[in-house]
Amino acid sequence: MTQTPRTPHEPVQKVKERRDAALRGLIDGVPYVTFLGIRFDRRGDELTALLPFDTKLIGNPLIPALHGGVTAAFLEVTAIIELAWASMWEEMEAGGQDRARGLRLPKTIDFTVDYLRSGLPRDAYARARVNRSGRRYASVHVEAWQDNRSRLFAQATGHFLMPDPMTEPVPDPVPGPVPGPVPDPVPDPVPDPMMDPMMDPMMDPMMDKAGP
What is the pTM for the complete model shown? Predict the structure, then answer.
């Protein structure tokens, strides 16, 4: 009996590089991540979002405390990245990491934030959990903490519209040849009255009087 040879396992380093490249491509699709300085720590398929402290994130300088809008944005970004990451995991593991480039991200339907206590002027962390993910809709819960994982300072629940699975990712534009200078338009020729009878009313009588 002939046995089918086993496919050799992919090297661990190559697996790590493929997953990290897919995550980078996914994060690059959210410009707000760069503005806030959000980073993601990956351990296998689990993501932990990190919001490094910056003075620009302070909303109330008297306490001081993180701005509520920053906290909400941090939680929402964490939810979107986690949802997109979970939806592309199987395809990525099959070697389709390029799909992260140009991937259409989920769109927020509603997002409710519970502020449990003031965010202190220090780093913050968050993790999201996908409660339900269907073909078109998904529900995600997010929790954020700072010093103590069990002492949350904010949590949120959101519902999202998933991208159409039948729609392909938007490809990067293919660079074409650099266009040269546009030539000056060529002016239309000025008609010669002697060559066009319609331009000279005297031509018709002269032609009538002409003999054979």
Answer: 0.69
